[in-house]
Write a structure and sequence with these properties.
34% of the residues lie in helices and 27% in strands. It has nine helices and ten strands. Helix 3 runs parallel beside helix 6. The protein binds adenosine-5'-triphosphate and magnesium ion. The site of magnesium ion has 4 residues, from helix 1.
């Protein structure tokens, strides 16, 4: 396998809500120009792991490194500034704001002089957003809103992008478009962590696979080494998308 640089390295992370443990000694790496697909049944802890990585919830133990710098003790804001971006499950864009305004808000940390380049990159990535730049985000279709949410997260130029079920509720044709945009991000060198219920779709873009069961890692392997059936069998709740 091609040697790539690790961008995000999570080691032995444990976290939960109050006294309730949800994640136990979870380790996960995302490499430059790669997709790490994160699988697990409902309630396995995928969203919790993304919240812990971005600093939205506290971790009880473990280490989170971004390009070899320990960010475990940093605030969510500082982690975002350092280059960690998250598109949350059912992420809502600012519906009453225009597409253009949403993108500017996504890149609020950028210097004014840096904005045009990032905006242009967003419109080039998702041309439909350029066509709709003056439309209210709330008037966009579900797929277009998801594209806007991703474009917004990419505005400040993150080093790692965490995508929590970006295809949820979207038509297959839009799902394929989103996957194509992920392939392009890889080519640009982005490290991506992708949570996706559609196992086959996720495997088609994944380089590495991590599967959680009850908050513990049960598979951690190169995507090429992961047997589709074994992965499906590893947890309940995965949808069979072989016909999609
Ligand atoms: N805010 C919260 N407070 C308390 N418990 C929570 C909270 N969010 C999630 N949990 C619990 O933590 C566990 C892991 O949930 P999480 O949402 O991380 O799973 P998931 O793998 O993302 O599931 P899904 O596939 O349904 O999105 C579950 O038992 C859930 O009930
Ligand atoms: Mg979830």
């Amino acid at each position: 396998m091609l040697e790539r640089n690790p961008v995000l390295k999570v080691t032995d992370l444990s976290a939960g809500y109050g006294d309730i443990g949800v994640l136990f000694d979870v380790s996960l790496t995302a490499w430059e120009g790669s997709v790490t697909a994160l699988f697990g049944s409902n309630g396995a802890g995928k969203t919790t792991l993304m919240s812990a990585i971005t600093g939205l919830i506290r971790t009880s133990t473990g280490r989170i490194e971004l390009n070899d710098a320990d960010i475990s003790d940093k605030s969510a804001h500082a982690r975002s500034t350092a280059g960690v971006a998250l598109v949350q499950e059912n992420k809502r864009v600012f519906r009453k704001r225009t597409v253009h305004e949403n993108l500017i808000l996504g890149g609020y940390r950028l210097k004014r002089s840096e904005r045009p380049t990032s905006l242009e990159a967003a419109y080039e990535r998702f041309p439909i957003l350029r066509d709709k730049s003056n439309a209210k985000a709330g008037s966009l279709s579900g797929g277009q809103q998801q594209m806007l949410a991703i474009a917004q997260a990419l505005m400040p130029g993150p080093k790692v992008l965490l995508l929590d079920e970006p295809s949820a509720g979207l038509a297959p044709i839009i799902v394929n478009e989103l996957l194509q945009s992920i392939v392009r991000m890889k080519a640009e060198g982005m490290a991506v962590v992708l949570v996706e219920q559609l196992v086959g779709k996720a495997l088609s873009v994944a380089d590495h696979v991590v599967a959680l069961q009850h908050g513990r890692v049960v598979i951690d392997a190169d995507a090429a080494e992961v047997d589709d059936e074994k992965l499906r069998a590893a947890y309940l709740g995965a949808r069979d998308d072989s016909a999609v």
